[in-house]
Amino acid sequence: xxxxxxxxxxxxxxxxxxxxxxxxxxxxxxxxxxxxxxxxxxxxxxxxxxxxxxxxxxxxxxxxxxxxxxxxxxxxxxxxxxxxxxxxxxxxxxxxxxxxxxxxxxxxxxxxxxxxxxxxxxxxxxxxxxxxxxxxxxxxxxxxxxxxxxxxxxxxxxxxxxxxxxxxxxxxxxxxxxxxxxxxxxxxxxxxxxxxxxxxxxxxxxxxxxxxxxxxxxxxxxxxxxxxxxxxxxxxxxxxxxxxxxxxxxxxxxxxxxxxxxxxxxxxxxxxxxxxxxxxxxxxxxxxxxxxxxxxxxxxxxxxxxxxxxxxxxxxxxxxxxxxxxxxxxxxxxxxxxxxxxxxxxxxxxxxxxxxxxxxxxxxxxxxxxxxxxxxxxxx
DNA sequence: CAACCGTGGCT
DNA sequence: TAGCCAAGGTT
Length: 380
Prior knowledge:
Strand content: 5-15%
Number of strands: 7
CATH architecture of the largest domain: Orthogonal Bundle
CATH class of the largest domain: Mainly Alpha
């Protein structure tokens, strides 16, 4: 049998936990969580569906941001069955502004999958859960432990931070290999008596006390367990590699007027902002004039001949992995019905029925302003 | 494995 | 200001 140069995660986890007071740590954490947890709507009951929705919304998203979306979503779609019967357009409209829109599409697909394959009930089996679109290792662990009381780990960013400090683990937490180590550690630590309180306690501690920049160690219920605190090194952890610089792209978009209607298209699934509506847009070429770029893109990509009348606004929008310098032009329609696969002429007052990304939502808002000022002008 | 996929708030 | 950060998943 061949032996690896580096220890397996399971062996390393066991070595790291040598001398750690597992039982005492569990008690202190769970006790703290029971008394100090925030009153959040998804903690009101253990409905697996609501836990699922909340966990998906909370992926890479702050509690305060997700909260109003969650309330609207479960009000409109209270059950898996209700969601499974929904139109994707309605789901995306409820998700508008929350970002990472594949989450919404996957949640809808997942709900339909649960109706067809699992009789409308989210399975409590790890391997079956993992087959559902949009449910990865963390979300599966969260649903299993919180909704079904199963003693499995749920490793999110909070848990990586808390455990890296607690156990003084110095590996780069962004590497997939390190993630496996922390999953082993969390699996060994999880409290069999109350996996829900333990896993949520770990995350709540990370959110409220063991925060990224200025951890509140003096308020920490498990300070006596913390190796980083003992070493005075809590601010050095977790270790993370540097982020790559993100590229900037010059973009043009156009508001093409044809009577009271403007042209919009639905972005293809799978790409950036997939499934959302947008004004016709495209990349400006190097050394190309902005207005010329607008005319060229409308002609080539959207089959529209227009007269570019002037800039409406500039939008600078930063995504997670790229940045747009977006210049928006108003245009008068000349010819062409529009050739985008999912293009439509929509009256301006009906634009609110469609889901737009934040960057193009600003264009819609600018048009509302235009309408208002035009009406004001007409009244004078 | 590394790149892709949003958004808003904070320092 | 520019960068960092937040209950990740998919390809």
